[in-house]
Amino acid sequence: MLNVNELQVGERIPELIVDVSTKTIVMGAAASRDWQPLHHDPGWAISEAGLPGIIMNNYTQAGWISRFITDWCGPNGRIGRLRFKMQKPICPGRQMRVEGHVAAIDRDDDALCWVGLELTVHADDVLATTATATVALPVSEPGAAWRRGDGHWQPRDLCPRA
Amino acid sequence: MSTLPENMSTLPEKVKSWMGEAVVRVDGVLVAEQGLWQNFCAAVQDGNPLYWDARVAACLTDTVIAPPAMLPSWCIEHDWCPEDQRLGLRTLELHFMLKDALGLPFGVVSEVELEFHRPVRSGDVIAAEQSIRYIQDEKKGRNGGVNRRWGIDVPYKNQDGALVGVQTLHFFSYRKA
């Protein structure tokens, strides 16, 4: 379990590298039932939409970013907010690199700590997406974040701009 | 609250009437189930035990839960289903209604905000309401086309009416010269 008492602003999260293929993009689009042609039809994406190829949809990007966060914090962490700005498309043949660091820490009470994260997603050397997230981490009792009921679960917004 | 463009005359009456309203309601599209969310986990190679392992989940979330990031897709129907069960809505229908009404055939999501509340569990049925947050004025593009930005809010609730999450999407839509 991540020790929130040792966590510091600036701490880097281990990077995630993914070789993006047509399969990577189509699997994500299919799993989110997003059958817009720009996520599976290269001919349409290039000639009709003027894109360099099919592009990863926003649901799949959210999935990769969430996975990056929970790989780091483990299942005890509970994501409260996720915000991401897609600036350049992520297409097949690119290497996707997700990076991030702790940008803010805010102790809620004796049980819970809110951690703000700033993240980037590169496609090769191009900055494709910027993101922020706020995740709740338990201070000592592993299930503390998940046991917050509806009335007491109010995700803080520690990094308001992606 | 909706924000209108400075030049309201550029908006069709139909679009003006949508401001401040829940224009599209989506309900009963799918029943959440672990097999469906594991397709998503496989797509992003996410091995979080809360999505896969009932034994681990029992200690933290009582049952396995769906990845929060796929919340919006619980309100996207299958690409094909029997005619009598078909809602016929496109992915985020209100965005496509705006594209059609404003004559902007191409559109991409530029920014997404997600706020997560109660986790989605197997058996949940998620409902959503889509409303316009803002529409900006139409602008001329670099290549002679035109473009416009808008934002859409979508709160999601489960079958008990409990808030599951809120999604806000920001779009950039355009028409080529």
- Kindly report the name of the CATH homologous superfamily of chain A: Hotdog Thioesterase
Secondary structure: helix percent of chain B: 10-25%
Q: Report the biggest beta sheet of chain B as strand number plus sense, adding barrel if it closes.
A: 6 strands, antiparallel
Radius of gyration of chain A, whole Å: 17 Å
Distance between the termini of chain A: 27 Å
Report on this model:
The complex is a heterodimer of chains A (162) and B (177). Chain A is built from 3 helices and 5 strands, in the order βαααββββ. Chain A is α+β, with helices and mostly antiparallel strands and 162 residues long. Chain A has one domain: Thiol Ester Dehydrase, Chain A, CATH 3.10.129.10. In chain A, strands 1-3-4-5-2 form a 5-stranded antiparallel sheet, with helices on one face. In chain A, a hairpin with a 2-residue loop joins strand 4 and strand 5. Chain B is an alpha+beta fold and 177 residues long. In chain B, 21% of the residues lie in helices and 29% in strands. In chain B, strands 1, 2, 3, 4, 5 and 6 form a 6-stranded antiparallel sheet that branches. In chain B, strand 4 and strand 5 form a beta hairpin. Classes of the chains: A alpha+beta (162), B alpha+beta (177). Chains A and B meet through helix 1, helix 3 and strand 2 of A and helix 2, helix 4 and strand 2 of B. Strand 2 (78-86) of chain A pairs antiparallel with strand 2 (106-116) of chain B.
Key structural traits:
heterodimer; A: 162 residues; 5-stranded antiparallel sheet; B: 177 residues; alpha+beta; 21% helix; 29% strand; elongated
Quick take:
Chain A has 162 residues and is an alpha+beta fold. Helices cover 20% and strands 34% of the residues of chain A. Chain A is built from three helices and five strands; from the N terminus they run βαααββββ.
Secondary structure layout:
The complex is a heterodimer of chains A (162) and B (177).
Chain A: E1 12-19, H1 22-31, H2 42-47, H3 58-73, E2 78-86, E3 95-107, E4 112-123, E5 126-138
Antiparallel strand pairs in A: 1-3, 2-5, 3-4, 4-5
Chain B: H1 13-18, E1 22-26, H2 34-43, H3 49-52, H4 54-60, H5 93-102, E2 106-116, E3 127-135, E4 139-140, E5 146-157, E6 163-175
Antiparallel strand pairs in B: 1-3, 2-6, 3-5, 4-5, 5-6
